Amino acid sequence: MRSQLNILFLSLLFNHTQLFAQCASAPAAQTCAIGCTTLTNNANVNSGQTYCYTGTGSLSGINMNGGTIIVCGSLTITSMNFNAGTFYINSGSTLNFNTGGVNMGNATIVNYGTVTATGNVTMQPVTFYNATAASTFTVSGQLTLNNSSLLVNNGSFSAGTLLIQTSSIPALCLGIGSQNSLGSLFNNSNNSISAPSGNACIYVSTQTYLNATSLSTSTTLQLCQAATSTIGGPGGVGAATVYLNCTICSASLPVELLNFDAQLIKRKTELTWETETEKNSAYFSVQRSQNGQDFTEIGQQTAAGNSTTLLNYKFTDKDTYYGVSYYRLKQVDTDGAYMLSSIRSVYNAPLELIGIFPNPVEDDLNLIINSPRNMDIQLLLYDNLGRLVKSEIIPVKTGYYSVSMDISTLDQAIYRLKIITEVANEQLESIFIKK
User: Fold this and answer.
1) Spatial distance between the Cα atoms of 152 and 24, rounded to a whole number of angstroms
2) What pLDDT, on a 0 to 100 scale, did the predictor assign at position 16?
3) Which residue, 32, 192, 330, 419, is most buried by CB atoms nearer than 10 A?
4) How far apart are CA 19 and CA 264, in angstroms?
5) What CA–CA distance (Å, rounded) separates 194 from 240?
6) Residues 64-76 as b or e (16 or more Cβ within 10 Å = b)
7) Distance (Å, whole) CA 181 – CA 164
8) What whole-number distance in Å separates Cα of residue 224 and Cα of residue 259?
9) Which residue has the higher pLDDT, 15 or 386?
10) Domain ranges of the chain
11) CATH code for the structural domain at 258-348
């Protein structure tokens, strides 16, 4: 007779969260139809109005207050107030914000062509769709994503600096194979970048600074740090994979790591991982840490070199720290470039006997146990002459358990309880009285 003692701590976190099975789809492109008002200097584009630009040239004094502008040519805007509204940039068309900086509010930009901006761009809030693989969005200065802004990139996106401090999740959603190039990345929002459809890469040439706990929950996100680029801050990358000494995103993936797992088995940590492809891979450095930040190498595994088939690797840490041990892989290729995996942890601690009750006991002896892992334990009862009078094997899971043993048929006496685990020399003892 046994039952699990569930000790449940609930933390309810409420926020405005968008969940994507894939990045949000861009609205359809709009045509510059006959009858559309021609966009000119000093135009006031108000709610319900649609303006079109079909030529090649520059305009100034544009006031966006909720209407729509459709670009079907090559337009440079040298000054504007962007309070609200929608831009459509058609395939083959170009929109250049040559204003020395622009603040965008309550706007939507749907780009099937090319959008460039000189200076800094602040979005608060803006939804920007880089709609297709041919779409290009370039900011020469800093792009700041505020409030509930969302940038969906299915093509090519580059910026001198990207600052993310949004309330929406994600703030940057990357389509499969999208190209993203940054001078610096500053992240102040948890799980702000997502790559839900497949592999996507962000190249950072100078600096990545992570204030938020997690950059991404996507294992398909690759952060490609240039050789001269630094990565720091109190936060972390989450499930993303970091590649160091990168040149460009397309050259940053010597190994495609599918799974990396750590399991505590009989006080030893079994590390397993799989690779789907390997290109010029030399070896895996297995690293361990007590604090999750300072890692040292504890062993190496030779890599396959070049492979296009699924490969499985295994490494055993026979000297797992007591308490929490953190593990990661450093994959090194033949040119010296390397990448770091996400971090895994195990908790290694002895079995605890929290208490036995009631004592004295008449029928059922109850034990409260704290188990560090899933395992079988053996309960042994000895009388005062040292004779074994009862034995039972019980499976327990990680956490607190209440275990009940029927002793109603035992004689009144003092008994010794011994608990033995699967780990050599690990045992607990206690005394109780049968009345």
Assistant:
1) 7
2) 30
3) 192
4) 33
5) 9
6) beebbbbbbbbbb
7) 15
8) 19
9) 386
10) 13-257, 258-348, 352-434
11) 2.60.40.10
